[in-house]
């Protein structure tokens, strides 16, 4: 991991250097002309960042507030004992915490630390970017009360719950998570078993503390958001989408192409329904669904955010399982349901 | 790096991110990146960053004994710099690189969409209920998508703004006047366009923003009916304050 960070540091410094040189030459009226792809990259990257950063901030704020105001015992009392019910509750938790796909990551990590079980946590992480009022409304606005809306909601819930249940075989969340995920501030390096005391104090000092946690967490998560958005922007600036879209119209190939597009675009689940409209008519309904179901669970910026919370092996399963389930479900829809 | 220096740098970057968001709003370049309906979100983000910057600034705990748990004390080990480097990338690109909206070079990789649906079923009649010379590029493409036979639009006056795209598929004497439609942010931008027919088509450089006046004809691009403007006048204009159309 250390080496990866060093490489990232060099990449980061290189980008900073390029920006500085560009600024100076522009300021002095110099004549270095950068390829237009660089500007396309910058615009797309800043677009994703400007759009996603406030959502990530809201997620870290929610996480800070949960840390300060929710007792560990209280969460464990509410959490269903039964694993299936736990996963189902996790899948529906998005209606209580309507944070979308960036914000849900820090919040889930905090809930794990407060004792939420793996099945419930993973189901929450995967389902809530779709199963929340805002995204359901935007999907309704784009598709109306039709099979796309219902199937999107049903498939997202089913796949999230199934993925959560698969992780439920692991009794100890600690084995799925990166060690640092369970020992966050306030006590760095504390072992998992130590009962962390609730922070006591006046309302003002609790809020201050929640904000402090949110700031720290934004730095932890924000760097992955930035690297993920840079990757997505770079790919978008270079890979011709036309070639990609020309690949597939068959029941299987169309699904694969739209899933790849969902991962590549890394767009927010609140608007992906509108984006997918551009493909209605040329692409199968199953493939549109695969775009709408997989995108919020797995895309470039999400994967990088997941890596901050889970062990690498866990993230691998969190990517492969939804991908396989989405393929199975949407190809089945393409072949058997005439919609 | 000591804990204190690290905290100070974090606060500085958080403040910088707040300044970056407000700078984009004030300079009017925010709409080069996102759909205008998310402006409130950016204002909110800028305010929260400012608040976090304020609370991230390290305080002397001695004078705030009741807050002593606020900071992670007792960890003398230095903290790594790379998260700070990464977090300053949006600042550097945002402040130092000249702002540019997506243009025809982005069109080379994104391709042109001839299908600009607003929603599946419904809502269309309202959208098209506007005088033809007030329709923008997106309205026209949509009108053609929804019309049973777009021939009904032939002869209507058109008055649109967009950038020049010299599409290699077009014959001599024609170019595309294009716009990007953005639902959320530049990452989801899709390009749409109308064909412009004019004797001087070849002399317009790619990316030049133009104001085209003329009458509508039906043409075809890759088998799909697309609007064509028989140009009466083509005028050079500067980039509009909102370069993208918001579907």
Structure description:
The complex is a heterodimer of chains A (339) and B (247). Chain A is mainly α. Chain A has one domain (37-181, 199-336). Chain A is built from 16 helices and no strands. In chain A, helix 5 packs antiparallel against helix 6 (118-127). The longest helix of chain A has 36 residues, at 203-238. Chain B is of the alpha/beta class and 247 residues long. Chain B has 2 domains: 3-96, no CATH class; 104-245, OB fold (Dihydrolipoamide Acetyltransferase, E2P), CATH 2.40.50. Chain B has helices spanning 3-26, 39-56, 82-96, 104-110, 124-128, 137-146; strands spanning 157-165, 174-181, 190-197, 209-221, 224-236, 244-245. Chain B has a 5-stranded mixed β-barrel with strand order 1-2-3-5-4. In chain B, a hairpin with an 8-residue loop joins strand 2 (174-181) and strand 3. In chain B, helix 1 (3-26) packs antiparallel against helix 2 and helix 1 (3-26) packs parallel to helix 3 (82-96). The longest helix of chain B has 24 residues, at 3-26. Chain B is elongated. The chains are: A mainly alpha (339), B alpha/beta (247). The interface between A and B is large, with 87 and 75 residues.
CATH first level of the largest domain in chain B: which class? Mainly Beta
The N- and C-terminal alpha carbons of chain A lie at a distance of 47 Å
Shape of chain A: globular
Order of helices and strands of chain A: HHHHHHHHHHHHHHHH
Q: Outline of chain B, from the CA principal axes?
A: elongated
Low-confidence segments of chain A, given as residue ranges, are 185-196
| Assembly status | heterodimer
Q: Tell me about the biggest sheet of chain B?
A: 5 strands, mixed, barrel
Q: Let me know the number of strands of chain A.
A: 0
Q: Tally the helices of chain A.
A: 16
Biggest sheet strand order of chain B reads: 1-2-3-5-4
Give the overall average pLDDT of chain A.
82
Tell me roughly what share of residues is in helical segments of chain A: over 70%
The number of helical elements of chain B comes to: 6
User: What pattern of helices and strands is seen along the backbone of chain B?
Assistant: HHHHHHEEEEEE
What percentage of amino acids of chain B are in beta strands?
A: 15-25%
